[in-house]
Amino acid sequence: MATQGAAPVLGLVGATGAVGRVVLSCLPLFRHDWSEVRLCAEDSDVGSTHVVAGEVLSVQPLSEDFFDGVDVALFDLPPSVTPRWVEHAADRGVIAIDNSIVYRGRDGVPLVVAEVNPEEAARRPHGIIANPGATVMTMIDALGVLHRGWGLQQLVVTSFQAASGLGRQGISRLLDEVDVVAGKRDLAQHPGDIRRLIEHELGDSCFPAPLALNVIPFVGSYSGEGWTSEEVKIREETRKILDIPDLKVMATCVRVPVISSHSISVHATFSRPIDLERARRTLVEAPMVVVLDDTEGQEFPTPVDVVGADPRFIGRLRQSPDFPRSLDFFVSGDNLRKGAGLNMLQTAAIVARELTGV
Predict the structure, then answer these.
(1) Burial level of 64, CB count in 10 A (0-12/13-18/19+)?
(2) Could you tell me if residue 103 is inside a domain?
(3) In this structure, are 146 and 291 located in the same domain?
(4) Which pTM was predicted?
């Protein structure tokens, strides 16, 4: 383990997945925090190399020995195998930052957003820190600053989630479906035309319905009483990050035919009347938030315009005279960057400063 003043060692577990690749692309900004960076992944990628800040890093196999000498490890693994490796690392004194759904709701595991509640990273009795889901990450920076100003009470949201929310398999499936329907201008003349064509050509899908030329009002798994797991996560994660245990939340999650970048339509209600222009100034001044809002000039965020960028982009800011304590806006953000990989690295940097006493 790192000694006081010495730069710690970082391990990246799942380095070749969709999120892992984004971590690698962001890592040059944080390379100075670490004396060494190690990568590991599934067997098929072992031995492959990646250049990070001019340094060639080889992918090692995921094994118990990988964690020897590692101080902080970032995990992006399937939930089915996550507990084995995260808890093994934590038992060995490694601080584990996990991107799966496994630990986000657990007591004693902080759910950290670098700009919203960085102090929580130090409160980790089990040696584990959870990274929030990408959907919540899309809106939480904006909600955090608005909550500090006006006191958030209620939240009604509809998400528009990209295929990359299911990682590489989601991206591949959407692109395959687009290939199947491309150039077929006589499609969708009858119910089920597109479904029959795609299922005939591609077979079983990671999505519950065709995604090309379609939207799917069901993201995640069924959680009972009409809710999906993704909708439940929005409610519980937002409450935990903002420390509002009684926050009233209604969420509808929709998968859309976008490769990367989630979007959310937000209707937020506060304990005090909120002035639109003051709220706009607050958002303009917030870290990791860009206000792109000129409705008359048709300037607003869309997923294809924000992919690859770190901030959350907000537009369509408005307020109804019928709801003086409410604010509506549309927000888009890259779900693989700040929605996952970048926030993990930011959290790891917070921990690295703690370990070195900087």
Answers:
(1) exposed
(2) yes
(3) yes
(4) 0.93
